[in-house]
Structures are given as C-alpha cells and as structure tokens.
Amino acid sequence: MNIEEAREYCIKKPFVTESFPFDEETLVFKVYNKMFAIIGLEWENPAINLKCDPEKAIALREAYSGVIPGYHSNKKHWNTVYMQEVPPDLLKSWIDHSYELVWNKLPKKIRESK
Prior knowledge:
Layout: H1 3-11, E1 16-19, E2 26-31, E3 34-40, E4 47-51, H2 54-63, E5 67-69, E6 78-82, H3 88-103, H4 108-111
Antiparallel strand pairs: 1-2, 2-3, 3-4, 4-6, 5-6
C-alpha cells in the first residue's frame, strides 16, 4: 500500500476529516476532531501512525519488524507502520482498528449517527 492508497482508505471512513495541523508534511486524520491516523508525506519510508489498544500495540511490534512505537506523544498507544513492510489487507485492518478505538470513545449520540 502506498501513501495515496492509505490516505484514500482513511478518508472514506464516516465523518473523517484530514488536515495539516503540524506542518505541510504531516497529514492527520480525525473523526469528530479525535486523531486516529497520521501520515508523514515526506518521511524517508512511507509510514502511517495508528492508534492501538496497548496489548495489540505490543503484539504487532513483536510480530512485524515494520512496526515500531509511534512518534505520537503517547507511544504506548500508537504504532508507526511502514507501509511497504506489511500486507495491504493487514494495514487496512489496523486502520479500521484505530478508527474504531476512537469512534467507540465518542458520545453515544454521535455514534448512533453512523
């Protein structure tokens, strides 16, 4: 999966917005203003930072050399996934997981609109 494919997959999720809040090289995806994915457009290796539950984050790092602690301030709950080093279907499932983690913490009234 390349950066554009990952971007398109993220933006197709319900109620997702994308922005450049840090700089013009870091694309952020949010659902109702809560971040679930970060893509570095100018990083040396194409990568995406994804939110994970703590157990899954550790398991993924142990299972795949292309997954390391994320650059986000809370590294226990974010993984950096090098897109070229994992199968596309697996990356899509991790994007889904990150999105659902954030979605499930939103107020019930918002979640019912999905």
